[in-house]
Amino acid sequence: MVVLADFAVPASAAPSGPVLECPQFIEQKSVQISNAPSGWTTFVRAPLYLHGAAPMSGPPEELGELAEFSQKREKGVWIYTYQLDAPFPAGKWLACTYGESDQVTLGKRLDDNTRVCSFRYQKGRHVGENIIAIACK
Length: 137
Prior knowledge:
Number of strands: 11
Radius of gyration: 16 Å
């Protein structure tokens, strides 16, 4: 089992609409491994860097990933836009994912009146890291 606490430096966000920010990384001291096999010790070498962000239907444990979005590319930037007009019985959520394969997710409930969110991705300095600016309205 992995336990997380204390998060760090947020990513910058786009200026329009409410500002939402995913923490840019989860410090390695925040990652704790419990129930390691007998005789083994644990060591976390590096922080988990922000890899992805997207709106979800419901909290992250419900795996309500949205399949419909538009995408466009600008100089070194990918932009993903999600329309959130449909009903969301379990609420609209922001999921921030960490690690190259999105091993850890932090979730935050969005305002029920959120209609659209845009995510601007740029590559970060670390392997698998993305700098993500988020704007929702």
